[in-house]
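Below is how a single chain appears once it has passed through the pipeline. First comes the sequence as given, then the structure the pipeline wrote out for it. We keep one example in the README because the format questions we get most often are answered faster by looking than by reading.
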Amino acid sequence: MDAGFQDLLERFTALGGTAENVCQRVGEYGRGIFPIDSSRRTKIMTPKNLLVNASNLCLDGKKVVIEDEKSYTAEELAFLEMYWNEYSWGNFGNKDSASFLKFIVSLEEPIKKQLLSCGFIDAALLSYPEDNDCLLKRFVNERVVNFENQSVLAPVWEFVNHSSFAAPLRITPYGVETPPIEPGSKEILFKYSGKNSPMSMWKKYGFACDCIVVYSIPFNLDIKSEALAIRCAGQLGLDPEEKTSFSIDGKILSIKSLPVGCLSISLPKENFKSILSSVGMTEETANRLFPEIREANLKVRRDLIDCFQEPGFGAQAQLYKALKCEIELIEKSLSV
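Resulting structure:
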């Protein structure tokens, strides 16, 4: 095991953290966490006393510091600032965040507008100034988790990479921890967010990956025969506190988030049928409308890919991959 990483873990556990049977290596997803002994279970738990509110991390020059020090002991404060300056932000941990933001700014205006209209980027990113404060904000937003209704950063635990097919992270009264997994030699992974799609992962984290579902872009449909308007907001999944994906107000059916592709190939169409049936619309209407919605979603993604012509490198390659993953998932559902 790397001596520096071992020292980090010893300081981490001395302050209440848990780092059982883990080491750091480079694998399929880049730098990640692996078991030392494949016959034993692994676990990382960042305790409550080492969680840092997202707004409490700031820059003093190029150095990351904790702005409000009152909540931490001198030992905790020294560890946290050492961690971000030597192992995270200060160890090229901001490189991918910087690459993502510079890529967005460098895009031609028609591509920016298309990404914005599809909900694939936020308007604030389009005028990103190249300074470290804005870079830190992006860096933090890529790493926050919700703990006791606060957005927090969890040192050491954040070293674990994402897989859409792994178990989700665990939030306990004691802190943030990796999910229980059976002993083995493979890299330790967990799911960063619940209902993620390739484009939502790219938007939030700056990387592309295989996912289970794809969500529709925003659209408006006026169905004159039914005297009904369908308005899709194009959210890339629902927020955890949202209990339903749609609502009806008079003659307007508002859909927050609509799956248009999925590994379960029948799910998107059946979900759309269920939404329409709840407002009295027939299965025939759903069967007629849904292929049009999927084709519109395919077209916008294909058009974006055509703008780049080739995968490219870095942030462009990640966007290209995310779009290709979404097209494949939508196409798999077309035969249903």
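The first strand starts at residue 18 and ends at 20.

See the next section for the split statistics.
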